[in-house]
Amino acid sequence: MLPDGSLQMMAPTLGASSKSTHRTRCEWKEPGYWLFASAADHWNRQEMRLTKVNSLQKVVIGQIHVQGSERPPVKVFWNKGRITMVFRSNYLQEDPVNTTVLENVPLGALFKINIHANSSGAVSVSASCNGVKSTSAIMRLDNTWDTKTLAFHGGVYNQIDYSDTTDPEDGSVCIISDLSITHA
Asked: I need a labelling partner for 110 at 20 to 30 A (CA). Which of 17, 131, 142, 180 fits?
């Protein structure tokens, strides 16, 4: 926690990772899981800035995580100065759809992302930075997601694998200044 109440999260590229990947992360997550049908609307609103990004310049900053799986319906990335998202309409979908939500989000700039899903399976992501706001198209989840338990996650999740040659200074850092999650 920083003196102003914001939260700094750091993920060195060369560090501890999960069993299934050589990618490091430092993230927050909801304490419980939910179903899409459990509330009319599910919102994750996050205001943050990235102060450092790994050498690949790609990091996950938010997602709708599915319990027990590495195939979330939605992931939001900061990717070389753009906010992008990937979307799986079907739980078994191999190749998610990739969409740019907002261009011109420089390193160090304060920006907001909102992930919204409703009980009928409509999902959208909006982002704003420096007075410019953009929202993705509304995307539809099919009924393969109906029984999946979900939670919002966010922070920095490096999209680069570490190796013996990884620079020990490589990594990502974010500062989250506002965060809210609602299910209503």
From this structure: 17
Asked if the structure places residue 77 within a domain, the reply is yes
Number of domains in the chain: 1
CATH number of the domain residue 83 falls in: 2.60.120.200
Print burial letters for 36-70: b (CB count within 10 Å at least 16), e (below 16).
beeeeebbbbbbbbbebbbeebbbbbbbbbbeeee
Q: What is the pLDDT of residues 104-136, one digit of tens each?
A: 999 999 999 999 999 999 999 999 999 999 999
- The string of pLDDT tens digits covering residues 17-51 is 777 677 999 999 999 999 999 999 999 999 999 99
Closest CA to 45 of 32, 59, 61, 31: 61
pTM of the model: 0.96
Pairwise CA distance, residues 55 & 158, whole Å: 10
Residue 1 inside a domain? The answer is no
Q: What residue numbers bound the domain in which 13 lies?
A: 7-183
